[in-house]
Protein: Redox-sensing transcriptional repressor Rex
Organism: Virgibacillus massiliensis
Amino acid sequence: MDHNKIPQATAKRLPLYYRFINNLNHQGKKRVSSKELSDAVKVDSATIRRDFSYFGALGKKGYGYNVEYLLGFFRKTLDQDETTDVALIGVGNLGTAFLHYNFMKNNNILIKMAFDSDPEKVGTTIGDVPVYHIADLEKKLDGVNVAILTIPASEADGITDRLVAEGITGILNFTPARITVPEYIRVHHIDLAVELQALVYFLKHYPLEETKQLD
Amino acid sequence: MDHNKIPQATAKRLPLYYRFINNLNHQGKKRVSSKELSDAVKVDSATIRRDFSYFGALGKKGYGYNVEYLLGFFRKTLDQDETTDVALIGVGNLGTAFLHYNFMKNNNILIKMAFDSDPEKVGTTIGDVPVYHIADLEKKLDGVNVAILTIPASEADGITDRLVAEGITGILNFTPARITVPEYIRVHHIDLAVELQALVYFLKHYPLEETKQLD
DNA sequence: ATATAATTGTGAAATCGGTCACGACTTATT
DNA sequence: AATAAGTCGTGACCGATTTCACAATTATAT
C-alpha cells in the first residue's frame, strides 16, 4: 500500500473532498476545477491540487477534474465499498446525536451497537441501533474495532482498558480525559470544551485580519 | 498585548494545560515536571517546555513547575477572570449536550441563551439556559458575539448570515456545511462525520507503529 | 560538602504544511 | 488554423511547528 506517503494533513481533508465531490455528482455536474472546489470547501486551490497529486495525475490540464472519475477514485481510496462497523459507548445527549446521524449515507460507516448503564436505555433501539448494557461489552463487541467514547471523563480509563482488551484499534474520544493506550492503538481526541475555549482565546488575542478557518 | 507572538499551535493547547494543572492543584500536588505533564496530556515534554517558554521562564531548572504559580499564571493568561457569553443555535441532541456541559466550572464560558424553532423547546430552560425561538434571534442576541452552530446543514448559510449581521465574531460550526463569512470572522469547523471517517482512514492505511494521538 | 540525579530553557536542526508561480497541456474562440 | 483562455501538476520557497540535545541550575543523597 503506497498510502504511507500521504501527509496526515492531506488525509484529514480527504473525507471532506469526498463529500463535496459526491454532492457535485448528485447535482449532475460533469467536471470541476480546483478553484470551484476551493470555494466550496474553503481550502486553497493549490492545496487541493497538491493533495490530489499525491494520488497521481487525477485531472487534466486546461480541463479540471472529471467528477465521476474523481468520485470513483476517492470511493476506492477511502474504502467506501467496505462498511466499517463502529461501537458507541455512552448514550447521553452527545452519544444520541451520533446514533441519529446517518453515517451510512455518505461514509459507509455503521454504528452497529451502543452501550450504556442506564436501565431506561438498555434494551431500546435508538436510530436503528441496539443499546446494550455496558456490562455486556465483552459479550457483544464482536469484530468491531472502532469505538466512539461519549461517556463521563471518570469512566474513560476503565472503559478504554476493556476496549483495548477486546481488540479495539481505533478510538474517537470525546472525553476530556487524555486516555492511555498501547502505542499500536489510534486515538483521536475531540475535546469540546477545549475547542470552545480555544476559539474564545483566538478571538481575544489575535487581530481579526489574521483570522482563518481552522478545523 | 504581547500574545501575538504566541504560535497558534501553542494557543490551542493552553486550555488543555490549564485543565490538567487545575486537576493537579485539586489533588494537592505542589510541583510538576514537563515529563509528568507530558504523560498526562500526551504532548511531548519538549513541546510543553517550549510552549511555556513563550510566556517567560515559568519553571525552575532541576525542580520543575510550581503548580499553584502555574495555575495562577494560566488563569490570567486565559482570561479566566472575565466571562465570555455564548449563544447556542440548534437544540437537538448535540446542542442539548452543550447545554448540560458546565463550561463555567473550568472555563468561565457561559452559554447564555439557546435558539430553536421547535415549539416544544421554545420557552423552556435546559441546563439553566433559556431557549428562544429562532425568529427572535435579532431581538435576543444582545452583546453576545460567539455562537455554537448545532443545526442541520441546510440551515447553516441562512443562520450564519443573520449571526454575522448581528455582529457575531466567532462561530464554532458543527454543521457539515463549510459556511461563508467575511474575513474578519473566525470560524472553527468540527465535522463529526469527517473526524470519524478520517480515523477509519488512518486505521486502514497507516502502519500501527506510526500511530499518534491527534486532536 | 560533595557527588549524583533531575529538570528547565533554548539554539539548532529537522519536519511539516501551505502557497506562489509557471511550464505544459487542453479547450474554446475566431 | 491560429490564438486566447483556462487549468493542472509541481519545483521552489516560506513559515510554522516539533524535536533533539545540551549547558545551566536546582534538588537530593551520602
